[in-house]
Specification:
The chain is mostly helical. The protein contains 20 helices and no strands. Helix content is about 75%, strand content about 0%. Helix 2 runs antiparallel to helix 19. The longest helix has about 55 residues. It is globular, with a radius of gyration of 24 Å.
Length: about 475
């Protein structure tokens, strides 16, 4: 998901070195100050902190409302796992049934929507505003789920997936931007980390309800609930003070900032800082061409490399097809229960990442994350190899290995290659090029996700049948594939 900050000086996961700048400068004490003066200053500081604490309530409530969009995006990511298994099952009720190739496109098509959603969100961001874009995107979000729920053919399913993917791409850009602009520094890290956490809760939402409901249509109907709640809650939220200032709406910006800082908060200093920051951004605004400059190109390559390794670790094919993977493994634990366990592990590991991010450091977490993911995937591959040789022996003696391997894999991903590539965008680029760099990196990320998800089924089929007489490329449904000659 994309973590985009408005000014570039904060980390979504916070940090111990992040210091809140007081809105009212404290008076410097002389060495000769007596005890009563010190006590008076202490009382004034405590009063200021108390006022700031009372202002946090509005920020937390608004953060919850905004991250409901992240939960809605998570349901899109998790939906294809239970729904795809039902749609391809021979016992599927109704006339709509998907082949393995159709299910491949059904799972991966949301990435195409998300790929477009990033640039669309960037345009709407400055036209409709942060809150306005979130409200506007909730309408097609609901419409996409309705198309899936009432689908009568494969085309309707694909259209619904692409639309919900589009809204996922918009949400992944707009929500972190909005939170970064209104949140005060003392709670910005906590609220920023809530986005990724709510995405994982949304994935678990799909897994859990997919195990409880009987059909993919009912599951799609239940997935409408998060964007509806998202729309209702954001209707009562305030617009970003920074956006209002950029449009010259000084009074509305002051009123919005006062709401977020509490009625007793001193906002004038912060308003002046926002105004100065906007002026600096206008003077130093950069186009996408600047990304070719040597001093920008190097961090861009680092960012794209992190995005590449994040997606080519295979996380999205795993999450999109979790039920199918467990079904093929022949594990004695039910497919749905295994998926729910993975969802719970992902939520817990993402929460753990918010604690470890600044304590362990980015480099160490990336090394540990990639190493453990590699070992866990090798172990899973070994299970399927042994199963291909002797199915009964593998299931009886190694039936525990698929679930264990994927628990370790998801945990390792969530503490390293999950959040850090997005976080590094804010740390590698200066504010004037961050918007262009973030857009380019995001498009690359969703493109890689599409390629990986699309190739899952061919690789899965070729594992057991070999490459001979298999399509050279994944065919679109209804198109006769070209096969390899003998």
């Amino acid at each position: 998901m994309v973590d985009v900050e408005s000014e570039g000086e904060w980390s979504p996961w916070g940090g111990e070195d992040e210091v809140e700048q007081p809105l009212i400068a404290a008076e410097v004490q002389q060495p000769q100050a007596n005890l009563s003066d010190s006590m008076e200053d202490t009382r004034e500081t405590a009063a200021l902190v108390g006022r700031r604490s009372r202002g946090r309530t509005a920020q937390y409530l608004t953060g919850f409302a905004a991250t409901m969009g992240a939960l809605a995006a998570g349901t899109v990511l998790g939906y294809s796992s239970p729904a795809g298994a039902q749609l391809t099952s021979n016992s599927t009720s109704g006339s709509l049934h998907l082949t393995s190739e159709e299910n491949m496109w059904f799972s991966s098509s949301m990435n195409l929507g998300a790929l477009v959603g990033g640039p669309v969100g960037g345009i709407c961001l400055n036209i409709l505003g942060r809150r306005g874009t979130m409200l506007a995107s909730s309408v097609p979000f609901i419409g996409g789920w309705l198309l899936i729920a009432f689908a009568r053919n494969f085309g309707m399913l694909m259209t619904g997936r692409i639309i919900t993917g589009l809204c996922t791409g918009i949400t992944s850009l707009i929500v972190p931007t909005y939170i970064g602009e209104y949140a005060s520094a003392d709670v910005r890290g906590t609220l920023g980390s809530g986005f990724q956490l709510m995405v994982t809760i949304g994935v678990m939402y799909s897994y859990l309800l997919g195990a409880l409901v009987s059909t993919w249509r009912v599951l799609a109907g239940l997935c409408i609930i998060p964007p509806v709640i998202y729309c209702v809650l954001m209707f009562f939220a305030k617009e970003s003070p920074s956006f209002l200032l950029s449009k010259g709406k000084e009074e509305q910006a002051a009123a919005a900032l006062q709401f977020f800082r509490g009625k007793d908060g001193n906002i004038q200093t912060e308003l002046d800082m926002m105004r100065q920051s906007l002026e600096d951004a206008r003077r130093n605004k950069a186009s996408i061409r600047i990304l070719t400059k040597p001093y920008i190109f190097k961090p861009l390559m680092i960012s794209l490399s992190l995005m590449f390794f994040q997606q080519f670790s295979g996380i999205n094919p795993v999450l999109f097809n979790l039920t199918t993977i467990f079904h093929d493994s022949g594990s004695k634990i039910s497919d749905n229960m295994s998926s729910i366990i993975i969802g719970l592990v992902q939520v817990a590991a993402t929460f753990l990442a918010t604690v470890l991010m600044d304590k362990a450091g980015r480099k160490l977490l990336l090394i540990v994350s990639s190493s453990v993911m590699a070992l866990s995937i090798v172990a899973l591959g070994e299970f399927f190899y042994e199963k291909m040789i002797d199915k009964t022996w593998a299931i009886d003696n190694l039936g525990w290995l698929p679930l264990t391997s994927l628990i370790i894999f998801v945990t390792a991903f969530s503490i390293g290659y999950g959040p850090i590539p997005w976080l590094m965008i804010g740390e590698l680029f200066s504010p004037n090029v961050k918007e262009a760099a973030a857009s380019f990196s995001t498009m690359f990320n969703w493109s890689a996700s599409f390629v990986m998800t699309l190739t899952f089924v061919p690789l899965q089929v070729n594992r057991t049948t070999g490459v001979r007489n298999r399509p050279m490329f994944p065919p679109l449904p209804g198109i006769e594939p070209q096969t390899l000659s003998a």
